[in-house]
Amino acid sequence: MDDDAMRRFPVPDRDDLPADLRERIDDETDRAGFTPNVFAAFAYKPSHFRPFFEYHDALVEDTDLERHEVEMIIVAVSGVNHCYYCNVAHGALVRIYAKDPLLADQLVANYRTADIPEKHKTMLDVAVKLTESPVNVGEDDLQRLRDAGFSEEAVWDIGAVTAFFNLSNRMAMFADMRPNEEFHTLGREPRDD
């Protein structure tokens, strides 16, 4: 695990972690080819690590949204929140799942001008509204999502992903989590310059 995973709290030594955390981190490291720094950072407090990643996994595995839609929400919300870690890490996942090397940069800069269907603009409008002014989200916003073609479960999932990643953004910023260098290049096509 990278000692520079976050700057404001110490990163624990992997060997000092409970067995279940070591196993979860090792599984992720094997899958990704590196240990995403969010795992090293949240390992600081094992009692928080467990429910954080359990809920994360539920959000991305038990959803009526496509995986690229989940990642689009995360990147748009993280762009509004200026979360460096999530913009970079989930930007890589948008590029991979959407098979689009440009989409993440468009979403971070201004999702409203991104090359996405109106259905996805509606989804991101509601996610950003929930991020910026949650008190103003009403039944009309949920109806806009339904009218755009999202199922009732997908409407719930849009709210759940948005809420969770607002929490995640705030913790990443509070701890000053740093994205792994690998995330910067994942899902980008080589250029012929």
UniProtKB/TrEMBL annotation:
Key words of the record = Oxidoreductase, Peroxidase
The record's GO molecular-function terms, alphabetically, read: peroxidase activity
At the highest ranks, the source species' classification is:
Archaea, Methanobacteriati, Methanobacteriota, Stenosarchaea group, Halobacteria
Q: Which NCBIfam families match?
A: ahpD_dom, peroxid_rel
Q: Which InterPro entries did the record assign?
A: AhpD-like, AhpD_core, CMD-like, Uncharacterised_peroxidase-rel
What are the Carboxymuconolactone decarboxylase-like domain coordinates in residue numbering?
Answer: 47-92
Transmembrane region positions? none
**Signal peptide coordinates:** none
Q: What is this protein called?
A: Peroxidase-related enzyme
Q: What residue spans carry the region label Disordered? A: 1-21
Superkingdom as given in the UniProt entry: Archaea
Q: Which SUPFAM superfamilies match?
A: AhpD-like
